[in-house]
Amino acid sequence: MEGPINYLEHYLLDKNYTVYRIDHPLANYGTRETLVYKNSLVIKIFSRVNLSVLNLLIDFFLSIYYCSVLPGKNKTLIGANNFDTLAALTYKLFNKGNVRKIIYFAADYSENRYGNALLDWVYVIVEKLVLKYSDVVVSNTHRAEKKRISLGLNTKKSVVVPNGVYLDSPTFKNKKINNNNFIYIGNVTPEHGLLAMIRVLKDLNMSLTVIGGGSGWKELEKFVRKEGIYTKLYKDKPHSFVIDYLKDFKGWGLAPYNNDSLWTFYCSPLKVNEYIASGIPVVVSSVPEISKEISEKGLGVVYKNLNGEDLAKNISEFNSINFNLKAKSFYSYYNYNCLYSLISL
């Protein structure tokens, strides 16, 4: 599925920039590739093998190599994480006249990222370096920005940009929300909390749609089959499928983040923004920062403790009349053209 960096690429292409993108695997290096894109089209493929922690070093040197061989002068380099940004800074060290600006598109922050004391120490050291030497640092929540300020970020080059939404043809049509109909978009993992959410909602005579993937997918299939929950499952679908599906969906979006991993405290969940912009109220935990805005603006139900009776009561009492107007107002700010214009290119 597409993420914020892909939306930023679309935004830059809309503004007629020439965009090269270097994509390294997030995991499963043994069956994946490093892909190089020009304006969203693949132009280079580099097959990978799984070399454990050495994968990060190979990513680092591949990024520097492709920065060197790809055409263009006076480049703006954008790192999608701190290790990629470190590669950009290293390239600039030896090619100062060929780099105009380096942007650390930092997104959220992840404490104890690797669960390994040495690697987590390296992660923080790299974070501090790129915060110091990048020209612009983008965080997607105020919490992430505050954390980075504590690590040495100069506020003069900091900007907070939540994850922006793109709808190809926004209509904001009025929908009759079905309080027994739920959808979840994204990975099925412990920290995303979907199975725990289903367990407390299953007595609502619920129907469920899940579009995504992740390590917990087979467990999800087994659970909904055992419980007899009417479920539609769509695995590993393209982002265009997700947006088209949300456009016509009449029900509630699920975003049950928990504290199993510390990154959820800093996250700006793209799926939450896409639910709301698509006219779908959201059931969200109080963990992510945006939960406060959802509560204050009546964009869904926010819970602190996962309790089935309380959720059922709050969902049934929620006023979804003219929610499409709230969706339109939300999208007027959270569309990526508005948000990414805040980044000094």
Q: What's the SSE blueprint?
A:
Elements: H1 4-14, E1 20-23, E2 33-38, E3 41-47, H2 54-69, E4 75-79, H3 82-94, E5 99-107, H4 117-133, E6 136-139, H5 142-150, E7 158-160, E8 181-187, H6 194-201, E9 207-213, H7 217-227, E10 230-235, H8 239-248, E11 252-255, H9 263-266, H10 270-277, E12 282-285, H11 291-297, E13 300-303, H12 308-317, H13 323-334, H14 336-340
Parallel strand pairs: 4-5, 5-6, 6-7, 8-9, 8-11, 9-10, 11-12, 12-13
Antiparallel strand pairs: 1-2, 2-3
What characteristics describe this protein?
single chain, 345 residues, alpha/beta, Rossmann fold, 2 domains, six-stranded parallel sheet, four-stranded parallel sheet, 14 helices, 41% helix, globular
Compact overview of the structure:
It contains 14 helices and 13 strands. The chain has 345 residues and is an alpha/beta fold.
Can you put this structure into words, describing what you see?
With 345 residues, the chain is α/β, with parallel strands linked by helices. It has two domains: 4-160, Rossmann fold (3-Layer(aba) Sandwich); 181-333, Rossmann fold, CATH 3.40.50. It is built from 14 helices and 13 strands. It has helices at residues 4-14, 54-69, 82-94, 117-133, 142-150, 194-201, 217-227, 239-248, 263-266, 270-277, 291-297, 308-317, 323-334, 336-340, and strands at 20-23, 33-38, 41-47, 75-79, 99-107, 136-139, 158-160, 181-187, 207-213, 230-235, 252-255, 282-285, 300-303. The strands form three sheets. The chain has a six-stranded parallel β-sheet with strand order 10-9-8-11-12-13, sandwiched between helices. Strand 6 (136-139), helix 5 (142-150) and strand 7 form a beta-alpha-beta unit. Helix 2 crosses helix 3 (82-94) and helix 3 (82-94) packs across helix 4. The chain is globular.
